[in-house]
Amino acid sequence: MKMKIVLNNKKIVFGSVLIIFLITGLVYPSIKFVQSAHDAWGDVGCRWWFDIGGDDIAEDPEPEPAPAPRRTPTPTPEPEEPEPEPEPRPRPVPRCSNQCSPAGRTKCSGSSRYRICGDYDSDSCLEWSSPKSCGTDKWVNVGSSYSCCNGGNECSCQNREFLDYYCSSGSCRSKVAGTQTVHSSCSSCDDGNWCTTGDGCSGGVCNSILARDCTDANSCTIDSCNDPQNRCDHDLKCDGSTCALGSSDYCNSCSHCSDGVCNCGETGATCPSDCEVPPTAEGLQIIGHDCCTDTKGVCDVHFEWTYRDGGGVNQEKFNFQVANNAGFANPEIDRTIPFSGSLGYSDGIKNNQIIGVRDSSTPDKITFRGTSEKKYYWRVRVYNEDGNDSGWVVAPSFFQTEPHAWPWPDFTWDPENPVVDEVVTFIDNSTCFNTVNPCEYEWDFDYTGNISCLSPLDVNSSDMGDTTTTYPDADSRIVRLRITDNDLGSNSYCCKDSEDFTIDISLPEWIETGGK
Hints:
- The protein is mainly beta.
- It is built from 2 helices and 30 strands.
- Strands 4, 5, 6 and 7 form a 4-stranded antiparallel beta sheet that branches. The protein has a 4-stranded antiparallel beta sheet with strand order 21-20-23-24, with no helix packed on it.
């Protein structure tokens, strides 16, 4: 039989237990004193029982009333067992205090780490954790406020429960004025709308924070979010209301030919419906100086260019200017020539102009340069019948006039109808404009070839001024006079004149006699 006595009062002193043990041992000599495995001074109290024989009972049963004592013969005394030594009293655990509160609170640790309040050691008090990396978070919850850890424009840590806050100039700002999203009974959520982002819990309800950004940075599209299709739509609108005609987005995204505007690098060749091809002038050149004209002392300069129009529009007119300065201020020649049959009018037609260089400044104001280095510049502008023009097209180089006019050969002869062996006098009416050095004369009284300044002559006389000759037989004759001004250069600076006449056979003198 076992009798169990449970003592739950911590304040029962060890001596009381010993007295009970001694009294009970007198009645039940075979009693055994057993201590439970519980801590002596724990919250569950002290548990002692006495083994006095009989069946075992379950450990820690509810207390049962002790049986009434019965009379038994006095047993033969046995030697008294020695009293067991009491176990040492456990040393009380020292009290602790919290280093932080409440559990779960976070604070910054440096600019990119934070600590969490919790119980991390053997006691039951709260203390700060070791520093943890902020990772992708940018905020930390500091009590009831939010602070930027580094105090700058970028936050260092962020409590994920407050994703609707952002850092601005070192201060916390809410993305939704006056609100904050706090996780209550969930850690993450999705509101099921593809067109929202940043979904979070507020009072246990999942709410979206931001609308999905569907902007494609193209000013020619109308951007929208399509939740049923889980996509962003970008409707192209190219009428100029959303983006400007000719803008980069318009040219890259829209079909611009036939929009009525010549833009986006279009030309008359690539988009004739939008771009009228302006005419142009090509191949500007001076094709010659004719200084041996029928007008004494005049040197004609010949200009030529080609009219071009890729659209095939006919020429209407042109402007022609010559000036003694590259800026064409107060040009000496300023002509507007309307279309006429002498110009030609279609693409590829040659246009030309002639100016006469003189000693005087009239009528074209282009004069011989004398001893100066006078230069002249020229340009043209052509127009088509649609009113489009080429703009001024400047000749690739300037030109210079001669120091003075070229020689002007001129002569007559006497008698007007010479005969065989009759002396013919050639009267020189020529002019040499070289006032420093005389010109060179070459007479050919019976020329049969094609005279030129570079071709040799059968020179019969080099007389400057009048000269004479006779012809031994009757025939048609050609007389040529070539005059060269060597101060202008080589023999190419010469002019020539020729006259044709006939030498007749002289008839014998006759005397009329009377007949019989």
